[in-house]
Amino acid sequence: MTSTLPVQTDPLAPPEPRPETNRDRVRRLLLDPLGFRFRKGHDEAEGRRFLDGLCDELAYMGDDQLVVLRRMLQVHGEGSAKAFWPDRPTFLGFAHRVQPRPLTEDPLVLSWFGSVEGPRAEREGTLVETFGYIEARRAPPVSDQARRLIASQAAENARRLEVLADRRKWSHSLDPGEVAWEVWYLDRRTMLADLVKTERARKEVRP
After folding, report:
1. Which of 128, 189, 203, 206 has minimal Cβ neighbours within 10 Å of its Cβ?
2. Which intervals of the chain are annotated as region Disordered (predicted)?
3. pTM of the predicted model as reported, rounded to 2 decimal places
């Protein structure tokens, strides 16, 4: 029977580098090269939270897009010397111009569909129309007028689906454009139903 000797490690050897996180990547490609600073007297911990939050919000962007964003922001520092960090809306506004964030990853959308509004839209058959409203306006449908508009659009779309199902039932010819719309609509509805389920489950397990 052979025995194995324990592996000896060199205590003087440098530690293995840790994998780069998305937050690290955004810092490396965007924030560190920009070299902006906070104004005198700015709370250090608050500043770290601000920059960490930016990293997390911009982590969806690709490497090349982060470099383009950096070049755009270089001349948009605050103060007379353009040396202070721009505010969050400035970062996000330019980021949206370079690479719009997928709406299904937008915190606004996830929060809305993860709330009671998600199951409500699913029950009322307005998932696709609600998503379309937010997509067009970058804001949730909080007013009665917005909800009426969504309900009207959903009723019209439900009617289109019924007509297609009826024509298919009786073997009538189908317009290719309408069939393509039907596939798109049903796929998006399934995607949004899955999103609601995922976000509701996430909220239930959140401490």
Report:
1. 206
2. 1-23
3. 0.63
